[in-house]
Design a protein that fits this description.
By secondary structure, the protein is mostly helical. The chain has helices at 20-24, 26-29, 44-73, 77-101, 106-110, 125-133, 142-145, 150-159, 164-174, 196-207, 213-244, 256-260, 269-277. The N and C termini lie far apart (62 Å).
Length: 278
């Protein structure tokens, strides 16, 4: 076997002010897995890491989408489309992760499910923040996190501000497209609803892509993003169905039945409706 020698200039950990582990905070990351099953259950580590990794990807998505909103507000849509392209790749990682969790069989999971008590993915602050920043607003969800808690107040701040799509429509208005006034200023706490006037404006973009190339490109990237999100939701449903069947969720929901209701929720409805008109 060919042996590779260490090069003379390579840094030694013990002599460095900042190491790889220090920079990444690995002492915290790698000790954040605290299984509760007693006696220990081998598969609990998989379950914990699966969801911790998802939360890290959610954090990156929120970071990127917040930047995207800032770029749209500054009319810098070209920078925004690059961000959406990156987020799409993150979505692929999240989608593929379900395959790892699906190696957990029903009998294996049933032996450790009790340690979750009432803990549930529905309580994920970051996931709910993603739903809100994308326009699926629901003030009732604030009750899950507590309206007078730091998390609840942070979520309320996202609820009360325009979503990515709201800001995109305002951008299209600044470009001279006929976006209806009631879509430029509205109660941002309410979920977005389709408007025929927005479909008309989008039709103009799709019929004249050369004139509105930046908006045209952004529209298609948003469609990609939404499709990936719906596929992720569907894979979530199938994974839960495969592992627990039709049991109720640990957080008190009806489980698969409840998750199925989210599969067809649309963040950007007119971007799909306009296709019927083309």
């Amino acid at each position: 076997m060919t042996k590779r020698k260490l090069e003379k200039g390579m840094a030694r950990v013990e002599t460095q002010e900042l190491t790889y582990s220090d920079y990444l905070g690995l002492d915290k990351v790698l000790t954040a897995q605290n299984p509760l099953a007693d006696p220990p259950h081998h598969d609990e580590m998989l379950f914990i890491i699966q969801h911790q990794v998802s939360e890290l990807w959610f954090k990156l998505m929120l970071h990127e989408l917040s930047a995207a909103i800032d770029f749209i507000r500054r009319d810098d849509v070209e920078r925004c489309t690059k961000i959406i392209a990156r987020v799409k790749l993150v979505q692929q990682q999240l989608f593929n992760q379900w395959a790892v969790l699906e190696t957990l069989t029903p009998s294996e999971y049933s032996q450790m499910r009790h340690v979750l008590r009432t803990a549930s993915g529905f309580q994920s602050l970051q996931y709910r923040s993603l739903e809100f920043i994308l326009g699926n607003k629901d003030a009732q969800v604030l009750k899950i996190h507590g309206t007078d808690t730091a998390n609840g107040r942070a979520l309320a701040g996202i609820l009360e501000n325009p979503s990515v799509y709201d800001e995109f429509l305002r951008y299209l208005h600044r470009r001279g497209l006929p976006i209806p006034a009631e879509r430029l200023e509205r109660d941002w706490q309410l979920p977005y609803e389709s408007h025929p006037g927005v479909v008309d404006a989008l039709l103009e973009i799709y019929q004249n892509p050369d004139q509105y190339w930046d908006a045209y490109d952004m529209c298609e990237k948003l469609v990609d993003f939404e499709e990936n999100f719906q596929l992720w939701r569907f894979r979530h449903v199938k994974t839960v169905e495969r592992i627990i069947g039709y049991k109720s969720g640990t957080g008190g929901s009806s489980g698969v039945k409840f998750l199925r209701k989210a599969v067809n929720i649309s963040f950007f409805p007119e971007l799909l409706e306009v296709r019927t008109r083309i």
